[in-house]
Every structure is written in structure tokens, then in C-alpha cells.
User: Which sequence fits this backbone?
């Protein structure tokens, strides 16, 4: 089926409505292209996807920059993408060129450095619900992400880290991967969170085993494991409540 639209009083084929056609930046009217929109309306008018498209500059031969930006946000999540520090992991997980992964990492680092120097806007995490509210972007991720929220002695977030991507199990997650960032930023406590794309928030045996290992490791290091939260699209579960 072909769809037509009126443009400059002429009837033209609207390719963006075709079932097999992917919208590209060339299909957008000039005023809706991210860079032009930024210059005309200011950065606050842009969505995260539009801002990312500006950071990426161009797409690849396989994927337009708009399509790439949309896919990255859909698969990685807004906060996860800004929290990522490993360019190679980002490149591998999203199948994007390493140069573009580095551009994203650098942008996130700029934001973190400004955030770290500011005493305003620190998010306080006291319980599983606080973590769930902060990590709303994890609700819709198609892959499992394990995130670490590292807190100071006032329970304010001082670091937000993507620890791993993929199935969470004891064979690939080790306490050192959880506590290395905590030691680097001198955190007093950590909250772990991972999503279940299936929608079932029930902790698995692996979830419980990993949580117990990390709690015990934290006791040795003197870093409190505040909670481990499972996030789904509609709800969350506090594994910490099982201990």
C-alpha cells in the first residue's frame, strides 16, 4: 500500500508511511532536523534521541543516524547509555563503530564531571522504590542490564555504573566487578538493579545466589549492600527483603 501526503500543494508519495521504509534524516523537513531544531529552538527542545543524533553526526552505510539513535535508546536506555564507561562493550552490544561508541562515552563523561562538581541535584536512594523511580528507563530494555548505584554516606548517588549486559548469573558476575567502582569512588553503599525483560519480577535462584555473595563480600570490604532490585515494565521486587 502506498500513502500520499500534501506538500507545497502537491500530492507526493509519503515514503515514511510505507511498511518497508525506514525514516531517515533526509525525510525530515529542515525545521525538524536535530541540528536545525537546536539552533532555532535551543537544546532543551530536543529529545534524548535527537541530542544523540547530533552527537553521532552521521550514521553508517547500513543505518541512518536517526535510525541508529532510535535503536540505541530503545536497546540501551537513556540512563544506561549515559552511565556506560566501556566503549568496546558499548560498540559490541549495539553493533556500532567503535568511534561512535567513543563519542557517546565522551558525552556521558562530560555530563558526569559537571554533575560530580555540583552539590545540587544529587539523587538520594533510601529504599527499593527510590531505586525503581530513578531507574525507570530500565523498564523497557530488551536485554538484561545489571546496574550499580554507588552512594555516599548520605545515600546520595555519586556514581551510576553499567556492570554487565546479558543474562545475570554467577558464572559471569563476580563481586569484584560490583565493588571495584565502589572503591574507586569511595562509596559507602551500593544498590544493585537488573531488569527482567520477561515481565516476571520473581527472583531466580541465580539472583538470590549473586545477592548473597555480594552481601558477604561487602561486609568484608565495609561497603553496605543496601538492596538488589529487579525491575520489570510494570513492577519491581526487592531481593534485599529476602535477607
Assistant:
Amino acid at each position: 500500500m502506498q500513502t500520499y501526503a500534501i506538500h507545497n500543494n502537491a500530492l507526493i508519495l509519503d515514503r515514511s508511511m510505507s511498511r518497508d521504509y525506514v525514516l531517515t534524516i533526509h525525510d525530515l523537513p529542515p525545521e525538524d532536523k536535530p541540528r536545525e531544531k537546536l539552533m532555532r529552538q535551543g537544546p532543551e527542545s530536543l529529545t534524548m534521541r535527537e541530542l544523540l543524533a547530533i552527537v553521532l553526526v552521521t550514521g553508517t552505510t547500513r543505518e541512518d543516524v536517526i535510525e541508529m539513535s532510535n535503536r540505541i535508546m530503545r536497546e540501551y536506555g537513556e540512563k544506561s547509555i549515559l552511565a556506560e564507561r566501556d566503549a568496546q562493550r558499548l560498540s559490541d552490544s549495539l553493533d556500532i563503530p567503535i568511534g561512535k561508541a567513543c563519542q557517546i562515552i565522551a558525552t556521558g563523561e562530560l555530563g558526569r564531571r559537571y554533575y560530580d562538581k555540583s552539590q545540587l541535584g544529587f539523587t538520594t536512594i533510601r529504599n527499593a522504590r527510590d531505586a525503581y523511580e530513578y531507574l525507570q528507563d530500565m523498564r523497557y530494555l530488551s536485554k538484561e542490564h545489571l546496574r550499580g548505584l554507588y552512594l555516599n554516606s548520605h545515600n546520595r548517588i555519586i556514581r551510576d555504573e553499567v556492570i554487565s549486559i546479558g543474562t545475570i548469573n554467577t558464572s559471569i558476575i563476580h563481586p569484584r566487578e560490583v565493588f571495584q567502582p565502589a572503591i574507586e569512588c569511595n562509596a559507602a553503599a551500593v544498590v544493585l538493579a537488573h531488569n527482567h525483560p520477561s515481565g516476571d519480577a520473581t527472583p531466580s535462584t541465580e539472583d538470590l545466589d549473586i545477592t548473597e555473595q555480594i552481601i558477604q563480600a561487602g561486609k568484608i570490604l565495609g561497603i553496605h549492600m543496601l538492596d538488589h532490585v529487579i525491575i520489570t515494565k510494570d513492577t519491581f521486587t526487592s531481593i534485599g527483603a529476602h535477607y
Observations:
- The CA atoms of residues 3 and 14 lie 5 Å apart.
- DSSP finds nine helices and seven strands in the chain.
- Residues 98-117 form the longest helix (20 residues).
- The first strand starts at residue 4 and ends at 7.
